[in-house]
């Protein structure tokens, strides 16, 4: 129920723009509170638009200083202007120019959309609808223009002036009456682009520079701009950028197209980063790293985000989106590309597991709750709320599935076709998929349901073995629960990669049907379920095999298959597929944990299971890859367990069950874990590479289990590690281990950590987050105190996310506390943030997305908390949208 009368934007209402803007000349005079923007637009009627239509330019809070049409003042009533709109009822039906001068206040811009300040620097964020906060425009992605941008500023305040494209001119200006020495720079971007890719930066920043030689021999000047003094921390980002540029040439045949590529890191940023043409702007969290301040996970994120934004140059910029419903066209595809890049840079097997963990943690709950939406949505109230795990991560999974389905070769031909055919255009998901249909000769219309239907399908598998006939019969069935607005669903096209595992490994696959499609299935091991159910009979199977199903996580589905525990143990030991081998261990653990939760709920103490502990012992002794072994011994998270249980969730029972299993493994594997811990002690110089990171990961996973199994010995190891750690990975892992036990040692370690890192906001964020995720009863009061800490600020999104966000999404027991205090706190913060930064407020509020799965008491409290927001008269569109859908 919506309390206002807002109407959603609908995909089916899409109309081509009535006017086009071929070029934009901007003249921006930077000023802390009154920046002046003079824009000259070359406008013409769109031959594909409606003749004589009114011209309505978007604005958002703009103050107009002057307007001219074809350089002359318009007659009275020709232009109707408000802060939100500039309208010409009868615009010329020929090319004409429109000049508009506006004034904006960058310092007062707390939404961090449009032109704002981060520290003393000026920067912009225009995606999706921020350009209208700078000047009036057809602020929609299907209007592509060539931009020339002249920037002017005080030389002292902003010696650096950057915009999209190539620098064409720069120089000094006569000192004004105010005595301020001013200068200017002119940037020109020859590639037509939508307004959301516009960017400018002005400020006093340090920088590092390098160059990249493209495969056709062009030299690209690379620059990364950071706060003075932080230049050395940008080295890994630069290295990642060069590797990404080289990789896109070999993996996708994509070469960079401008003479310069600049990255600017700012500390106040709503999202991770932004792919503005030739001038990416980053949350500094995804740029700055040193071994002493960044964990291995941070390094991996920097590599991935740098690559992601760079890859957008082709998937997003050269080919952009027709409208915001097509957001996954650039985001899903670019995530797919950055996953492929990271897999090539690191261990593909380990990377796949990490990606699936992340998908299940962030996207599955979205798909299972009130905020579920299509990968290609059909309506929205607030587009900012659609930068979601569904658009990004599920969007990437769908493309990955497409590749599994049609094969790598057809996939690669489809990509080439897409780049060739749609370069320079604003495309749709249909355009994209049509390239693969053409390249593979396959009909992909049913596959398209992945874009049109929300929700995670359930794949149920059942099998039987007939020893006398030597047949193994597999029955597959898919079903999908209703999601908001979708009661009934058509079957999905699900590629099911599978294998049969005998005592010594994979068995050859043989089925009975003999046609091209089944030959292809046998050959690839990928069986396609495109109907509600399907039965496959495997022949010549000598002994009962263990079924290894959904290899590589070949489709984003939930799997229900009652494998015997003996089969799971066989898969853990023998499965040739590294993903299903890991999954077998997770499934086993999940089963034990689900049972333990039920036992705890019934007042019984959970039974121990030695077979699982033994299987993990063999993993530790036999696994050659520490990073992979670390994944194998890391139990499902509390949120994973909650998802597996699905309903009537009691977070305290889940916490107790997981702690109990960690303790049992820590005790049972004690000697193995000690051996691993000692064997993997740091040796030699630091390297951020995957092998070195893998050793640290396994050693710290061992430490975590040891602390659960043998609290005193574990704490002693952790204390020693905390005192001597020379990497942030080891230091924060030790602190986390010490923090498991309340008391003096923990508080002293927290103090020490803060003293060591007080000067580094990104490290202090880790300190906030770690405390926000403590399972103790007094965590909430600790967090409330921390909101008053001098290092905390509600104005900075990274601080808010690390303290309040970590609490709401990373602390299952305390956020969902039985007395409702966690809900109340988050609601209070959302309401206080909303007037200042609605995007960050709405993002926080989406932490309630699984409230309906809670047990009745907590569920009622969560609903009451959401209703307290819903009844407010004044809410941003962002928060209004999330709260109404959450309750819907
Ligand atoms: N396109 C950016 C990316 O690479 C995300 C920008 C989203 N910004 C926003 N305010 N919603 O993923
Ligand atoms: Zn992106």
Automatic annotation (TrEMBL):
Cofactors (names): Zn(2+)
Keywords associated with the record: Aminopeptidase, Hydrolase, Metal-binding, Metalloprotease, Protease, Zinc
Hydrolase as UniProt keyword: yes
Signal sequence extent: none
Reactions it catalyzes: Release of an N-terminal amino acid, Xaa-|-Yaa- from a peptide, amide or arylamide. Xaa is preferably Ala, but may be most amino acids including Pro (slow action). When a terminal hydrophobic residue is followed by a prolyl residue, the two may be released as an intact Xaa-Pro dipeptide
EC number(s) per entry: 3.4.11.2
Span of domain Peptidase M1 alanyl aminopeptidase Ig-like fold: 455-561
Pfam families: DUF3458 (PF11940), DUF3458_C (PF17432), Peptidase_M1 (PF01433), Peptidase_M1_N (PF17900)
Domain Peptidase M1 alanyl aminopeptidase C-terminal: 566-887
Gene Ontology biological process terms in this record: proteolysis
Peptidase M1 membrane alanine aminopeptidase domain span: 236-449
EC class: hydrolase
Molecular function (Gene Ontology), one example: zinc ion binding
Chain ranges of the Aminopeptidase N-like N-terminal domain: 25-197
Keyword GTP-binding applies: no
InterPro entries: Aminopeptidase_N-like_N (IPR045357), Aminopeptidase_N-like_N_sf (IPR042097), PepN_Ig-like_sf (IPR038438), Peptidase_M1 (IPR001930), Peptidase_M1_dom (IPR014782), Peptidase_M1_pepN (IPR012779), Peptidase_M1_pepN_C (IPR024601), Peptidase_M1_pepN_C_sf (IPR037144)
Family per record: Belongs to the peptidase M1 family.
Protein name per the record: Aminopeptidase N
Species the sequence originates in: Methylocella silvestris (strain DSM 15510 / CIP 108128 / LMG 27833 / NCIMB 13906 / BL2)
């Amino acid at each position: 129920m919506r309390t206002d009368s807002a109407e959603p934007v609908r995909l089916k209402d899409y109309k081509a723009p009535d006017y086009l803007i071929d070029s934009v000349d901007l003249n921006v005079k930077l000023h802390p509170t009154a920046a002046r923007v003079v824009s000259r637009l070359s406008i013409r009627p769109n031959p594909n638009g409606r003749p004589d239509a009114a011209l309505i330019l978007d604005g958002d809070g703009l103050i107009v200083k002057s307007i001219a049409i074809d350089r002359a003042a318009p007659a009275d009533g020709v232009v109707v202007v408000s802060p939100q709109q500039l309208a010409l009822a009868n615009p010329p039906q020929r090319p004409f120019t429109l000049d508009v001068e506006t004034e904006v206040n960058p310092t007062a811009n707390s939404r961090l959309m449009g032109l704002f300040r981060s520290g003393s620097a000026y920067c912009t964020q225009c995606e999706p609808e921020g350009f209208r906060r700078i000047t009036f425009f057809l602020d929609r992605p299907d209007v592509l223009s060539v931009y020339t941008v002249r920037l002017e500023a005080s030389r002292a305040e902003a010696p650096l002036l950057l915009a999209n494209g190539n620098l064409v001119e720069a120089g000094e200006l006569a000192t004004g009456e105010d005595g301020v020495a001013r200068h200017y720079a002119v940037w020109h971007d020859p590639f037509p682009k939508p307004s959301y890719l516009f960017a400018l930066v002005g400020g006093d920043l340090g920088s590092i520079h390098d160059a990249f030689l493209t495969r056709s021999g062009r030299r690209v000047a690379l620059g990364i701009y950071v706060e003075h003094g932080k230049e050395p921390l940008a080295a890994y980002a630069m290295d990642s950028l060069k590797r990404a540029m080289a990789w896109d040439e070999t993996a996708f045949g994509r070469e960079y197209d401008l003479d310069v590529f600049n990255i600017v890191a700012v500390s106040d940023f709503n999202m991770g980063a932004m792919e503005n043409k030739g001038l990416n702007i980053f949350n500094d969290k995804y740029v700055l790293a040193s071994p002493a301040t960044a964990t291995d996970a941070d390094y991996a994120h920097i590599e991935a985000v740098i690559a992601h934004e760079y890859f957008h140059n082709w998937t997003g910029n050269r080919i952009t989106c027709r409208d915001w419903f097509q957001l996954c066209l650039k985001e899903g595809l670019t995530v797919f590309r950055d996953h492929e890049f990271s897999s090539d840079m690191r261990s593909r097997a380990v990377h796949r597991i990490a990606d699936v963990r992340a998908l299940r943690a962030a996207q599955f709950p979205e798909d299972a709750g009130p905020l579920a939406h299509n990968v290609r949505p059909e309506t929205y109230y607030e587009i900012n709320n659609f930068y979601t795990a569904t658009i990004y991560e599920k969007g990437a999974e769908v493309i990955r599935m497409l590749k599994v389905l049609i094969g790598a070769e057809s996939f690669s031909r489809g990509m080439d076709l897409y780049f060739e055919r749609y370069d320079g255009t604003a495309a749709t998901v249909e355009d994209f998929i049509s390239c693969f249909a053409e390249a593979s000769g396959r009909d992909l219309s049913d596959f398209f349901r992945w874009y049109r239907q929300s929700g995670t399908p359930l794949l149920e598998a059942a099998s039987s073995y007939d020893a006398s006939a030597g047949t193994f019969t597999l029955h597959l069935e898919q079903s999908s629960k209703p999601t908001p607005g979708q009661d009934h669903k058509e079957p999905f096209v699900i590629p099911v990669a599978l294998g049969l595992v005998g005592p010594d490994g994979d068995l050859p696959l043989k089925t009975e049907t003999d046609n091209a499609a089944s030959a292809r299935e046998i050959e690839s091991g990928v069986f396609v379920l495109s109907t509600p159910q399907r039965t496959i009979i495997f022949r010549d199977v000598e002994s009962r095999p263990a079924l290894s199903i959904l290899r590589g996580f070949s489709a984003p589905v939930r799997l229900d298959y009652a494998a015997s525990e003996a089969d799971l143990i066989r898969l853990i030991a023998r499965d040739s597929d590294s993903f299903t081998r890991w999954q077998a261990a997770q499934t086993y653990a999940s089963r034990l944990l689900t049972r333990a939760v039920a036992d705890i709920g019934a007042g019984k103490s959970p039974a121990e299971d030695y077979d699982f502990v033994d299987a993990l012992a063999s993993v530790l002794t036999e696994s050659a890859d520490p990073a992979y072994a670390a994944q194998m011994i890391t139990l499902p998270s509390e949120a994973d367990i909650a998802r597996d249980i699905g309903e009537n969730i009691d977070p305290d029972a889940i916490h107790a069950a997981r702690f109990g299993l960690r303790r049992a493994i820590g005790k049972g594997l004690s000697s193995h874990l000690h051996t691993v811990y000692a064997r993997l002690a740091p040796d030699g110089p630091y390297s951020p590479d995957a092998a070195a990171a893998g050793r640290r990961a396994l050693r710290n996973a061992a430490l975590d289990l040891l602390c659960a199994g043998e609290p005193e010995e574990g704490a002693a190891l952790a204390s020693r590690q905390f005192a001597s750690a020379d990497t942030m990975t080891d230091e924060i892992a030790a602190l986390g281990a010490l923090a498991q036990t309340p008391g003096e040692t923990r508080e002293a370690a927290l103090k020490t950590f803060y003293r060591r890192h007080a000067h580094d906001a990104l490290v202090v964020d880790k300190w906030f987050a770690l405390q926000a995720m403590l399972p103790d009863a007094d965590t909430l009061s600790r967090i409330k105190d921390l909101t008053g800490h001098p290092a905390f600020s509600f104005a900075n999104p990274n601080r808010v996310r690390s303290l309040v966000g970590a609490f709401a999404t990373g602390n299952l027991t305390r956020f969902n506390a039985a007395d409702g205090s966690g809900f109340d706190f988050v609601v209070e913060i959302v309401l206080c943030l909303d007037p200042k930064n609605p995007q960050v407020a709405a993002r926080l509020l989406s932490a309630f997305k699984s409230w309906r799965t809670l047990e009745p008491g907590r569920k009622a409290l969560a609903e009451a908390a959401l209703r307290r927001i819903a009844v407010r008269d004044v809410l941003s569109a962002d928060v209004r949208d999330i709260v109404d859908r959450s309750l819907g």
